[in-house]
Amino acid sequence: MNPPPNLAACVRDNLRAYFDDLGGETPANMYDMVLRLIEKPLLEEVMAQAGHNQSRAAQWLGLNRNTLRKKLLEHDML
C-alpha cells in the first residue's frame, strides 16, 4: 500500500492541473484564489475537530479568536 501524498504534493498536483486546464491562458489572482480554496476546508476541519469551540480552534490555528471569527464569517460558516 502506498502512503498518502502529503499536503504540499496535493497542492502542487492540483496547481499543475489548473495550469493545464488554462491551456496557455494567463492566470489571474492565483494567490488569493489558492488561499481561499485552502482556508475554508482547513477551517471546516479544525472547527469540527474542536467541537465547534471557536476559542479552542483559534488556539490550534494560532489565531486570535476575533480573527478566526472574521474568517468564519468570510466563508459563510457562521
Give a written overview of the molecule.
The chain has 78 residues and is mainly α. The protein has a domain of 51 residues: Arc Repressor Mutant, subunit A (Orthogonal Bundle). It is 69% helix and 0% strand. Helix 3 crosses helix 4. The longest helix is centred in the middle third of the chain and has 20 residues. The radius of gyration is 16 Å and the shape is flat. The N and C termini lie far apart (39 Å). The mean pLDDT is 94.
Summarize this structure briefly.
By secondary structure, the chain is mainly alpha-helical. It contains four helices and no strands.
Helix and strand topology:
Layout: H1 7-22, H2 30-49, H3 54-61, H4 65-74
Helix pairs in contact: 2-3, 3-4
Helix content: 55-70%
Taking all residues together, what is the mean pLDDT? 94
| CATH domain class of the domain at 28-78 | Mainly Alpha
Number of strands: 0
Q: Give the percentage of residues in beta strands.
A: under 5%
Shape, principal axes of CA atoms: flat
Number of helices: 4
The CATH superfamily title of the domain at 28-78? Homeodomain-like
Largest sheet: none
Q: In angstroms, what is the radius of gyration?
A: 16 Å
